[in-house]
Design goal:
Layout lengths: L6 E4 L10 E12 L5 E7 L9 E4 L6 E9 L7
Antiparallel strand pairs: 1-4, 2-3, 2-5
Length: about 80
């Protein structure tokens, strides 16, 4: 039996700051080229980010991720 261990990172706003909803807008796995530019290797989709709630990483592989976050006002019905 093979067991896979994952490191999971979640992002949340400080509720003392405001009541906005937040999440992950996009996640890209990136690398540096020989001349120092950033190059996108792949873009993770919703299935790979738990619908924009988490970033799961393999702790046995070194990777660089570019994560964009968002924050929006809650709908009036949720305030």
């Amino acid at each position: 039996m093979q067991t896979e261990t994952r490191e999971t990172k979640s992002f949340a706003r400080d509720p003392d700051t405001d009541s906005k909803l937040s999440g992950i807008a996009s996640i890209e796995e990136v690398s540096r080229t020989a001349n120092g530019d950033w190059m996108t290797q792949r873009r993770l989709n919703g299935d790979q980010s738990n619908q924009g709630r988490q970033l799961s990483m393999d702790p046995h592989q070194m990777r660089i991720y570019h994560v964009k976050l968002y924050a929006v006002a809650r709908p009036a019905s949720e305030r």
